Amino acid sequence: MSTLPFPLFLPAVLLLLALLAYLFRRMEQVTSAVSGLVVGGLAFWLLGDLPTDGLVRLLGTPVQVDMRAVVMRYDLLFHLMPSAAPILALTLFLTATALLLNASAGQGRSFTPFALLLACGYALLLLLADAPISPELLLPGFLALLAALGVYMLQAGQLGQTHGPLRSLLPPLLAFPLFILASWHIDSLALNPQDSLAGAAAARFLALGLLLLLAPVPFHSAGPAIAENAPPIAVALLSLLYQLAALTLLFHITTLYPFVAELSGQNLWLTAAGLITAVWGGLAAVGCSHPGRLWSYAMLHDWGLILLMLAVPGESSWSLVLFLFALRIISVLAAAAGLAFLRDATGSLNPTPLRGAGRSAPWSTSAYVLGGLGLAGFPLSAGFTGHWAALQTVAANDWRVAAVVLLASGGVVVGFVRMIRILYDPQTPPSIPNERRHRGVIAITAILIVSGVAIAPQLLNGPIAWALMAFRG
Predict the structure, then answer these.
(1) What is the 3-state secondary structure (H, E, C) of 122-170?
(2) pTM of the prediction?
(3) Predicted pLDDT of residue 233
């Protein structure tokens, strides 16, 4: 019986799927659906209990996968650590969901192969256990490479605006040299632990690099520019994968180098960045009439609240951060599905052809609106419980900050109320055909998931508690 090491098996499967998706790109819906099912199966496989010896037989074949194998290539050591398993499973789950949605709303022939390549890249980042330089300090460079791959997904094989996709390269590109400089100072600190100047310099470089990677206001400009023209499902996948990696990196940096938080005033700059980001997202949403940009500003507002939670002292805040991010995933994917169906029906996201579209595609429109409102914590939406708990936590420290964030949430709600008037305009006859049945079923499923989480948020308690335990190793 032959044995395959998991750090080679998983990338090989993803690369093989990407190659097949490229070769059969004319059968986009089929390749996307098959790839989504395979990647989803891999995600659920990682959630299962491993045998004591770590060997898992592959679908009754004479091949088994060694989940605990260590692979060394070019001074890089790859190994599936217990703390990385839940993040890897979530990465595969997000990719699988995006691929299955793409099978119903084509995001361009380049979407499926590049989505699989991105999943492979993020998987290798999570499997990287050791390197000549600390893997955490090399991560921004790899994120820049993955952002470059994402540009092809955002362009969707068409000539169009490139400013937004190219701007997405800036945060990791600017952060990478800062992390390399921090690595040099950390090495100096290891040789001379009494060198306070080296520790302070490393803390400043890492803090500035993390600030760039988290992309708060004013480093947020790529988001709205991308969402205006790019396929919504591609935007959702790239945003969630990148932010998941950024949150993981922040946790690891805080754990490995505790002096960074102490010397850089991390809680202070996270609070300022989170507050400015949440407020700007709400203000920008008030006057926005473009559905893609409005969705992006709602995501920006929600991201600002997550940054505020990261500034709360104590490890207990991470459970609320993971809860907020889980609700963010549900809301973003629901809105992306609805918006992708509307975009496919009209050929663009311009407000003019979408005027009155809600009467022809009611379920897709409802999924978009409900997902967007969830990012503002609107009552009976998926994000309400998480936003309310976060605002209570913020108010315990300073009620004025909580009040400002609540007003900013109201700005996002006002923006979506205006968008509802556009999408359900009774004076304009709809310019799109009636909603396809299978898309209506998908949109209804998304609405039911969003509503179910809003009514019973405790459904997420088990997965979040398990992820938190594994996340902390």
Answers:
(1) HHHHHHEEECCCCHHHHHHHHHHHHHHHHHHHHHCCCCCCCHHHHHCCH
(2) 0.93
(3) 92
For the record, the structure tokens of 204 come out as 């400043």
For the stretch 25-80, pLDDT in tens is 888 888 989 999 999 998 988 877 666 666 777 766 677 877 788 888 888 888 88
**pLDDT score for 438:** 84
Cα distance between the two ends of the chain: 32
Query: Is there a contact between 201 and 221 (Cβ–Cβ < 8 Å)?
Result: no
> Does residue 188 have a pLDDT over 80?
no
Name the 3-class secondary structure at 110. coil
CB 91 within 8 A of CB 241: yes
Residue 234 has which token pair? 């591609």
Q: At which residue do the structure tokens 């007003």 appear?
A: 407
Find the helix packing angle between 291-310 and 222-229, rounded to 10°. Answer: 150
Closest to 32 in 3D by CA, of 18, 46, 42, 43: 18
Mean local confidence (pLDDT), 244-252 = 90
| Residue 269: burial class (beta carbons within 10 Å; 0-12, 13-18, 19+) | middle
> Residue 308, SS3?
helix
pLDDT at residue number 281: 93
Longest dimension (CA), the chain: 74
pLDDT of residue 46: 84
Give which of 280, 330, 336 is closest to 305, Cα–Cα: 280
Is residue 370 within 8 Å of 381, Cβ to Cβ? yes
DSSP 40: H
Coil/strand/helix, residue 457:
helix
Q: Give the chain's radius of gyration (CA, Å).
A: 22
Q: Is 77 helix (H, G, I), strand (E, B) or coil?
A: strand
Distances in Å between the alpha carbon of 39 and those of 104, 116, 136, 376, 417? 17, 9, 26, 31, 37
Q: Looking at the chain, how many residues does it have?
A: 473
- Residue 166's φ and ψ, nearest 5 degrees, are -70, -30
pLDDT tens digits, residue range 203-216? 888 989 999 999 89
Selection from 91, 85, 130, 103 nearest residue 37 by Cα: 103
CA–CA gap between residue 396 and residue 272 (Å, rounded): 17
129: Cα separation from own chain's centroid: 22
Q: Does residue 112 register a pLDDT over 60?
A: yes
C-alpha distance from residue 317 to each of 225, 307, 323 (Å): 32, 11, 10
Give 245-270 as a DSSP string. HHHHHHHHHHHH-THHHHHHTHHHHH
Percent of the chain's residues with pLDDT above 90: 32
Q: Which residue has the tokens 């009209």?
A: 346
